[in-house]
Every structure is written in C-alpha cells, then in structure tokens.
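Hey, can you fold this one?
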Amino acid sequence: MTILSGVLALAALAAPPEPVAFAEALAAGDAHYARRAEGAQGGTALPFHAEGAIVEYRRALSLDPGSYDARLRLLRAYFFRGGFCSEMDPDEKKRLFDEAKEVAEETVRRLDTEVKRKKGRVQVDEVSSTAPVARAYAWAAISWGQWAVFHKLNAVFSGAPGRIRDLAEAVIAIDPATEQAAGYLILGRLHAETPRIPFATRWVSRDKGLASLRKGLEVAPDTPQILYFLGDALLRLQDSKKDEARALLERCAALPPRPEYLVEDAHYAEKARARLADLR
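Sure. Predicted structure:
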C-alpha cells in the first residue's frame, strides 16, 4: 500500500468531507496548474507548478475520496509532470507513475460499478450525465499508458495493453471527441507501438493503429499530438506514405501553440522538427 492509498483509506473512514476545505484545495490546485507553463523552455516546463498542483489535488482527494473532479485533475497533473517537465530521478518517476496508476485503477473501479462496464464493454445508456465518465476513462487510460511506457515489457505481461485498449474503446463508445479525441489517439498508439507477443498481445493490429489515428485526426483536426503520432506511425509502418507523413509532421511543427496548451503543443512541435531532421 502506498502513502496515498493509506491516506485515502483513512479519509474514507473519517467524517464527511468539508466542502469549504475541499473547494479551497481544488482551487489552489487549479491555480498552480493554470501557471504550469511559467518559465518553460519551449516544450519543457519547470516542475514547480505541476508539483504544486499535485500536492493540492492530493489534499482535495484526501478530503473527498469520492470526488471525480479531484481524481481527474490529479491524473492530469501527474501526466503533465511526468511527460512535459524537466527530467526526474528514475525512482521518483517510478513512484509518480505508480501512484497515477493506482488513482486510475480506483477511479475505474468506481465508474465501472456506476455504468455497469463488464468485460471491457460499457453500456452507453447507463452513463450518467452528471459523472465525467468518458473523461475519467480517458485519463485512466493515459495514466496506464504512461506507466506502461516506463515499465515496458513488464507492463505487457501484466496485462496493461488490454486494460488500456478496453478503456480507450469505452471512451470512443461514449464520446469520441473527449479530450481531443484521446480515445482514438490512445487506441492508435497502442496498436501501432505495442510489441506483438504470442498469448499476450496477439490482438495488436498495425492497420487498426493507423486507422484509429486517422479517425482521431478527423474528429480533432490540427491537434498536434495526433499529427505527430500519425506522422511517426506512417514513417515506421508504411514506406509508401513517407510524403504524407512528412506533410503531417510539417503541419505539427508549424502550428502556433494554443494558449491553453503552450508547453504541450511546443513539445510536439519540437518532436516533429526532430523527426523531420532525421529524414534529411
């Protein structure tokens, strides 16, 4: 049991949540997260505000363990700290991703009960309009994916790819536009990048990966991360599509960063420029 899981277990047995303290913690986390691009160098942010957001969202979740608002914000902050900030000590990164996966698993368990998701399938008519179901499944899949990339083959044999696939497909079934077509992006990367191993990931299909990434681009046009990962996948998987891949990467590199995603968009623009440089 991690420190966070112990805190949440105690909080669940404690008195009802304090609305004022919870709201203050959530607002403090939001204030930090909104400033996450301060001092960034292109696509690499300083960790101060991301870590501040994590601290406050943890506090909010300890005050109300049933809050999806706190859970989703915390998963989002973990993702940003692990993927877009200056490098972490490997042991610290492992703890961060392990904690994110833990929060994701607990969030999915709660939602699965509410929407009666069984064997990876969700009944769309069971989805409550008051619960952020698609967003929660999307952030859970993203957290699992970040953990899996860090743990590599250990993640494959622990069943992570199947869990990620099922969550991404649930997001698409509920609302394909969720989080900039995150369901299609996650599913596309999963099929395009996961090693095909007998009895573990034999269901992986490169064609499905490319098709999912293309569908994601239809749903969320000019989204930098989809442009980058589709361009990269075409270069790796289809030699005949090199010109299309180059055009996608050039679009990604040329897009001005959106105000709400300054670091994230700059990050993918930098990756696109590096990938293009490799083609020369």
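The chain has three domains: 1-87, 89-219, 222-280. Let me know if you want another pass with a different chain boundary.
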